Amino acid sequence: MVPSSLRSWWRSLRRSGNADYRLDPAEAKKQIDRIPRFRILVMGRANAGKTTILQRVCNTTDQPEIFDGIGERVDARMVQGSLKRGYHNIEDELVFKSNLRYVFHDSCGFEAGSEAEFDKMKKFVTDHAKATKLERRIHAIWYCIPLNESHRMVTAAEKKFFNECDSGHVPVIVLLTKADALNLDAVDELMERGYTEDDAIKEAPEVEKQLQKGCLEKIKGWLNELKFPPQSYLMLTGKLMNKKAAD
Ligand SMILES: Nc1nc2c(ncn2[C@@H]2O[C@H](COP(=O)(O)OP(=O)(O)O)[C@@H](O)[C@H]2O)c(=O)[nH]1
Ligand SMILES: [Mg+2]
């Protein structure tokens, strides 16, 4: 059974639906301490910034160690080699030595459009969402959407996932990554309006905030229409990507 306080935490996450939402660190710690290992499925297209977030959360720049579904170590080079060929296994557990409390699964594969990979991901979500043993369950899904490609923020892959994948009670949180790319967009926009480069750089943070807000609204507009919309959205700005916030 899921402890009731954990359920109420999920409910509060669901209710918040707010990009600025941050759990009080003390409360987060209390909840996380209830679970021996926090298991998270990380999704998002290649280069969305998935590995970077996991490293940030685990306070490391190391690559994760990889174990297969029965706890045998998988040679990292093999996985990287096979990753290129598209044989990455969602069941593999990614663990960082620096923080053994987290176990990550990387969905890498279905975003490229393969129906078989999508079905595998969906089965993984359904199986692990229902798992009766808390230890085997996935506790959250983090769906990374990068903001550096403004023309393709929400692609067919995101639409398919949020239309077809019912994660049950497992919260899906959209992480908006690479928000810093919008700073450059803001500078460009100001220079197009006739600002000098220096003035544009000075004024950029304000415009950057508006661009962030605009991206968030657009993404919410697209995803909240779908059958299984995310529970919440989190903009990973510089502030949130720094070490203290990552804790
Ligand atoms: N500008 C910027 N680059 C990022 C950010 N996060 C990741 N990157 C870069 O994007 C590339 C892909 O990141 P990675 O975490 O490997 O993506 P993954 O393929 O989803 O695991 C790397 O070169 C990262 O350094 C970010 O927040 N801002
Ligand atoms: Mg990666």
Automatic annotation (TrEMBL):
InterPro entries reported in the protein's UniProt record: P-loop_NTPase (IPR027417)
Entries under Gene3D superfamilies matching the protein: P-loop containing nucleotide triphosphate hydrolases
Source superkingdom: Eukaryota
The protein, known as: Uncharacterized protein
Provenance organism: Pisolithus tinctorius Marx 270
